[in-house]
Amino acid sequence: MSISKRKLRSAEWFGTADKNGFMYRSWMKNQGIPSHAFDGRPVIGICNTWSELTPCNAHFRKIADHVKRGVYEAGGFPVEFPVFSNGESNLRPTAMLTRNLAAMDVEEAIRGNPIDAVVLLAGCDKTTPALLMGAASCDVPALVVSGGPMLNGKLDGRNIGSGTAVWQLHESLKAGEIDLHQFLSAEAGMSRSAGTCNTMGTASTMACMAEALGVTLPHNAAIPAVDARRYVLAHLSGSRIVEMAQEDLRLSRILTRQAFENAIRANAAIGGSTNAVIHLKAIAGRIGVPLALEDWTRIGRGTPTLVDLMPSGRFLMEEFYYAGGLPAVLRRLGEHGLLPHPGALTINGKTLWDNVREAPCHDDEVIRPLSRPLVPDGGICVLRGNLAPRGAVLKPSAATPALLRHRGRAVVFETLEHYKERIADESLDVDANSVLVLKRCGPRGYPGMAEVGNMGLPPKLLRQGIKDMVRISDARMSGTAYGTVVLHVAPEAAAGGPLAAVRDGDWIELDCEAGRLHLDISDEELAARLAECPAMPAPADGGYRKLYVEHVLQADEGCDLDFLVGCRGHAVPRHSH
Length: 577
Ligand code: FES
Prior knowledge:
Blueprint: H1 11-14, H2 19-29, E1 43-48, H3 60-73, E2 77-82, H4 99-112, E3 117-122, H5 127-138, E4 142-146, E5 153-155, E6 158-160, H6 164-174, H7 180-190, H8 202-213, H9 228-247, H10 251-254, H11 257-270, H12 275-287, H13 293-300, H14 317-323, H15 325-335, H16 352-356, E7 381-385, E8 388-394, E9 405-413, H17 416-422, E10 435-438, H18 459-462, E11 470-473, E12 485-486, E13 507-511, E14 516-519, H19 523-532, H20 543-551
Parallel strand pairs: 1-2, 1-3, 3-4, 9-10, 10-11, 11-12
Antiparallel strand pairs: 5-6, 7-8, 9-13, 13-14
Helix pairs in contact: 3-9, 4-5, 5-12, 6-7, 8-11, 8-12, 11-12, 11-13
The structure holds FE2/S2 (inorganic) cluster (FES).
FE2/S2 (inorganic) cluster (FES) binds at residues 56, 87-89, 124-125, 162, 196-197, 201, 203.
C-alpha cells in the first residue's frame, strides 16, 4: 500500500485526534469502514450519474465497482456519491436546462466533502460537460470514465444508429415510404445493450472530447459499454486517480488552452456534434481558458473528417473501437502535422502524442486515411452577419453540399408550437428553396435551448422526394441528426436578437464558405421591426427555471449561468461542529 507523504485535503476532516476528527470518522464507520481507511491515504470521490431514468448511464454502478477495485489496489479509499443525472431521452423540457444545475451539484459536492481527487462517471450527453464543469470550478485532480456506447442497433439484419435511425424512419413514415408497424419495429433493435448512443452523436462526441482533452485514459471514448475492456479501463482509472491525488495533478494542468485546441481539431476529424461548441466553451470558462467561436474556424476548418460514422457517414461506435478508436485518429492527425499540440499533458502523466504515437488502425474504411477523407474540409462552420451578430454554427459534414451556399425566402415559425401547428398544413407557402426559420428555442426562449433545430420538413415536400432544406434557428440539434441546419443563432430571438425580426417571405442568404448569414433587409427596417418585437415575459413558474432564464449566457458564451463561470478552487470550507 502506498500512502501519500503530501498532506491531503481529506486530512482536514479525518486527520485529527480531536472532537471533529472523531465525528467525521465515526459517522463514516457506520458503513463498516475500518480505522486504517483514515490513515492519510487519498480519499477518491466517484461522482456517479447513475440513474434508471438515464438509461444510457444505468450500468454505472457496475462501472463504479470496477473503479473502486482500482482505487483499493493502489492504496486509496473510494467513496461513491450521486449527483443529478440529466438523461437526454426522458428529461423535459430538455436535459440542457439542467446541465448547469448538475454542474453546481458536482462542484459543491466535491468542495464540501473530504475528497482528494475524483473520478467522474459520465455518459449521456450533458453528463460529461456537467461533471467536467463542476470539477473544473474546484480544480481538483480528476479524470473521466465514460460509460461507453451501446452495441450496434439492428433492424431487418442491417445496422441502425441511435437517434439517426429515428429521424430517418420518421421522415420515411411521413413520406409514406414505410408503415407504422415497420417504424415501431425499430424500437427494440435500436437500443439493445447498456450504453450511450452508438452514433457520433453528442455523447460519443463528448467522450472523444474528454479523451482529446487528455482527461481520460486512452481508448476511453469508444470501448462499448458491455465490452470487458470498459471495466478494465475503469479499474485502471481507479488506480491512476490515486497516483494523481498524490501527484496533485489537477485539472488546470490538463485543461489548458493547448488541450482545447487539440479537442477542436479532433472534433473536426471525428465529424463531432455541434453541441461540442457550447460544451467546450462552458468547460473552458470554468477553468479560465479563453475560447472564441472563431477558434473553431481557425483550428477546426480545413481539417479532414476521417471517421466515417453516422450521422455523417456509414458506421457506428462499435466499428470505431474495433478500428482503433480515437488514438488511431489522433495518430493519423499527428503524423501529418495536424495535431496542434502533441506535447499536451494528459492524466496518465504522458503527453497526448506519447499515448497515440503507436496506435494502430485496423480498418481504413471506418477511420479513413488523410488521402481519402470522408469530408475534405470538416469541422464546424461559424457564421456571422446581420442575422447572427454573435455567431451561429453549421456542421458541413452533415449538410447537403449544394445547399451550403443558398438564397431563399423565409418560412417563419414564431415558436416550436407554431411550427407544429403549421408544418403539415398543405396550404403552407413553401417549396424546396424556402428557408425554414424557427424562433424562441434558444437558451432563454425555450428555456434550455431545445434540440429541435433539425425541424422536420413539410410532409408535402417529403412526398415530392425532398430530403433536405436550409433551416435556421436559435436552437441546438441532436448530435445524431443531420441536414443543412444553421444552429445556435446568437443573440437568440428571446433575447432581442435579429432572428426575432424575420418575417415570412424575407430573403435570407447563407454562404458557408464566406461564413455569412444575412437577412436581406435594410438596417433601418431591421431596427424598426426589432423595436416592435414583444419582450419575453419572465417565467411564471419560478424555481430553478427562473434562476436559469435570468442568468443563462448565450450560445456563443457556452450557455453557462453567468455567476458560475470561473474556477473557485477547492479550499476546505469551515466546519460547523
Ligand atoms: Fe443518452 Fe443519447 S440519449 S447518449
